[in-house]
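haha ok so turns out i had the wrong file open the whole time. this is the CORRECT one, sorry everyone. sequence first:
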Amino acid sequence: MLCFCMYNRAKEYIGKREKNGVKMKRGLIGIFVLGFVFTIKGIVITANIATHQVTINIVAVDELIISGGDVTLTVDSATAGTSLDDVSDNACAFDWTTNSGTNKKITGQLDADYSSGVSLSVSVGVAGGNGDSTGHQMLISASAVDIVAGMHNENVGNNVLDYTTSVAIASPVSETRTVIYTITDQ
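then structure:
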């Protein structure tokens, strides 16, 4: 439509100013054609460009995984005249990641207590990062205990879990409990 209007205006102008005859018509038509080509070319170039915005949101991430599978502690010996021998296992490991700028901690808790006279404690051999082990902590179901403290902005793997069971004289029994670990604010 724009091109048709431009052509009609040029034709009117030529009709009124017919000094050089055909040469003036050809010159105006040439200008019109060049204007049309540049207009179309501009439209094509513009069609090859598209833009949009990309927003990246980084949210708080606290991840924890245990490798090594389930643990079985078998108490099968004693020193005569004392309680049963403690049994330990360190075949499992913790890996954790936190992007928190403030200190985090890992707590541990049992889903239910063992029978009277049977206890389970755990410590973590921290392999790096900012976190520190809190030493051997007895796990109970009533409340969580701190296992690792002072973690922030870190990704740490292969932190050895060391479980130890202590048993007073108790009748033979086999009990399985779930240990629940949680990353939380310190």
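The chain has a mean pLDDT of 85.
again sry for the mixup
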